[in-house]
Amino acid sequence: xxxxxxxxxxxxxxDLTLILFLTLVGSFxxxxxxxxxxxxxxxxxxxxxxxPKFFVRNPTLGNFMDLFLRTNNMWVxxxxxxxxxxxxxxxxxxxxxxxxxxxxxxLAKMKFKxxxxxxxxxxxxxxxxxxxxxxxxxxxxxxLGMIDTMSAxxxxxxxSSLSIYLMKNFMSQLPDDLxxxxxxxxSSHLRTFAQIVMPNVKPxxxxxxxLTFQGLWNRGTxxxxxxxxxxxxxxxxxxxxxxxxxxxxGIAAAAAVFLMIPxxxxxxxxxxxxxxxxxxxxxxx
Amino acid sequence: xxxxxxxxxxxxxELSESRSAYLMLAPFTLFFLIFTVLAVVSAMGLSLTxxxxxxxxxxxxxxxxxRTLIDDDILIIAVKNTLMFAIITGPAxxxxxxxxxxxxxxxxxxxxxxxxxxxxxxxxSGSVYxxxxxxxxxxxxxxVNSLLMRTGLIMEPVLWLAxxxxxxxxxxxVQLWSxxxxxxxxxxxxxxxxxxxxYESGAIDGxxxxxxxxxxxxxxxxxxxxxxAAVMQIGASFAAGDISVALAGNPSVDYAAHTVVTHIxxxxxxxxxxxxxxxxxxxxxxxxLLTNSGVSKFLRxxxxx
Lengths: 285, 305
Prior knowledge:
The complex is a heterodimer of chains A (285) and B (305). Chain A has two domains: 30 residues; 209 residues, MetI-like fold (Orthogonal Bundle). The radius of gyration of chain A is 24 Å and the shape is globular. With 285 residues, chain A is mainly α. Chain B is mainly α. Chain B has a domain of 169 residues: MetI-like (MetI-like fold, Orthogonal Bundle), CATH 1.10.3720. Chain B has 14 helices and two strands. Chain B is flat and about 70 Å long. The two termini of chain B are 40 Å apart. The chains are: A mainly alpha (285), B mainly alpha (305). Chains A and B meet through helix 1, helix 4, helix 5, helix 6 and helix 7 of A and helix 1, helix 3, helix 4, helix 5 and helix 6 of B.
């Protein structure tokens, strides 16, 4: 008689070994995060004791306070970095989602010449890796006069192949009858898109929003921007961590933790929606 | 529902559908053409020139490509390392994504959510992999060194990231650590969406344990996800470079962790030889395309895609 809730081919020992193994490997996966957080909570004496200890004896929030003090005394005020980050991430995400979903709909549900070719090109472009396209992109942007403006970070992210790919796949699942009904009622393609399709593909555009936002938020301005007032938060925090000396090691640790929290946070809240979208992420040969 | 508008005759309707489609695709196409397609095409074009980013490019035909074949010793090291990356981390990360997604899928629901998060976290947190430089720090403060010294296994700190014997394995390790990204999620989703009835009938038909389940039911049903993950992992493993630079610097000691991508950066940003860097990029892209189509053919033949 099979146990309720357990498939016939599974054993209890199998389950337990699985959980044990996963916990072990899982601890390895989160090791750097935990280490990072512990480091940021250590007061100065503990950061440099020898032999170094993993755990913290007297946790303190002093490093975070120092971080705020230090950032408040800079030439460019701290809020400016945050607002730059927000501007870049929000605008970039909005544009990207708009453009990707607008483009995904024809690919998913409409007939036109060249559709198959377009789809193939998108799949190939999933292969384009950032490092390979970065330098020609820089040259293009400099010819367009975009270097040292925030558009340099926003525009390349707008035409993200991954976004349009995920949206298209998810939209393909939508039953055609829904769209047919709208057409029969006289709706234009744009209206069908905006009022029928988009509300029904919520997991997909939520995923695109999350992925794009994370990508943009985490990306330092790198070589594209050299004016200090236009730099964003990751650049600042990386500057602080990278230029840390013995006396500022605590601040650097706090900065590192600060950097790592937002994307993790965002993912936790949207995890199941993202997984739902990824269920339709397959490439059909 | 009262149909108040009649449908337009077919040909006209299709024409307007085509036109609407092109219009809706226009914004994406614009950005895509300028920032992606143009970039790749101009990279290919620049590969036929000598360009130092300051003066205008000078046409030089195939010299750059000839140079990659006969005149670049470091490229050989870079290719060897990149191949090691591609062969080890490519399939390894692919299998790890699959393996862990499968195992996590077997867990009860709440554990599943926590574990998915735990395994996916390294790939989204930007540059957390820098923390590994502290863990593998070459002085006695590094976690690994202090642990080994405290347990008496070694007497002096090991120069992890400066010793040519250890650099590559460590970079590979960290690369694997951060490789459980979108492919991993795709697999998790794929596993969850398989019809449970298939398993029941499988059990009746004689499937005795988890592994048989995996081989005979689960994997064949996940063709599309396997394909997607292959595309993403191939891209990622051939383009390995960021982690190597963060951990071992560019150039790394004796070029031990030099990959094609770091080699490209070296020539483009370090030596201002854009033409040569573009030739390398184009070759890399060609190799990636080839590998991809090879893997696609394989997957198409062995799963019900």
